[in-house]
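Z., the sequence and structure:
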Amino acid sequence: MTTAFKDGVPSDSNLSVPQELIDYILDFLHDNVPTLRTCSLVSHAFLPCSRYHIYSNVFIADFSELNVLREQYAGQLYQCKNLAALLKHSPHVAPLVTRFGIHAMSDFMTEAYMDTSLVSIIPSLHNLSQIELMSRRKQVFCSFHLLRPFLASLRSIPLKTFIFSAIAFEIPEQFEEVFTAAANPALKHLSLICNSGAERTSEPYSPIRPTPDSLPSLESLSMAGTATSSNIAWLFFSQSLYGISCIRHLSLQIDRNTTTLLIQRLLNEMQGALESFTLDVNTWTGQQARLDLSRHRRLSSFFMIFGSPRLDPRLLEIHLNPTLRTLTVERACHKWERSLPHSVNVWAQVDAYLDKLALPALQSVHVRLHDSAHGICHCLNATATSFQGIMINGSVRLRTPCLY
């Protein structure tokens, strides 16, 4: 089918077969283990010296969803039993896998944990650095006794990245056990989308304690869902399971009950390292102090997203540091809201906010209108050298965008 590489070929050599063709052939044969074993595409002589291997990424999906996910994950989808069989018959494949995921668009997530072959798959992937558990349509409830074998495997792997958007926890103890198991020293990137989790705590929050060397020091953190505030309080204040002082990239989607005090204390811990910050929030309740990012000297990008009909003025009172280079403001709304008076007024407020900023390093401003139904996003981009606005004394001023 293809000629094996000769000795001495450099690692960046071009392949004689297009990668897309390889992906689709493997995808077509994903459940035909005997053929894969004899196929030169998976032989020892093919691709071990290249930078990217066809088995770098492996994802488990339900048989009924293979066609739906195939376009995005061509050549990377397996059923649990077929992947277990492949690893058993071709042991040289396991060390090549660095990214493993369970992706589902239905209740298949529960069935995957019930599959006994899953327990043997994860421990065999010795070079695994990333695990993704993603339910693409809704979070499903899973009997927790099914998760325990998986958690045992999770504790034994030095993961660098853990992405969790899959399970709705029935009780807080389930959330606590999962993220205690994931807290290994090698972990650098954590992403959590969850509408349930730790038990809600009230202010005042416990001080953040220094993280022992045996626990991870994160470099990026992404959290979303209605339980974000309680999960932040438990993970970083109550337990200090993850070090956050070295976080460079932070993304938070918070609900209206999350206090600015909680977010500010979180931000203060990463004051010396934070480079980019994305904040997705509608509005805050009660009297809230404004966020202060003026002391985050490494912060070069700030992305603010809001979806409420009217803009909370406190979002436009956030103190930004003078070293900021990129500012993005995005509003999510329905199509029929775009021309309403309150929508026009929102952009006028944003325009006034941008006009009064004194940010000498600011190079680009992006103002976006996002369809809440995830349709077409209309964007107005501005840069310091070419944009639909004017420069006044080195600062950026945009006209209110007219979007149709």
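Residues 1-15, 43-51, 374-404 have pLDDT under 50 and may be disordered. The longest helix spans residues 341-356.

Let me know what you think.
H.
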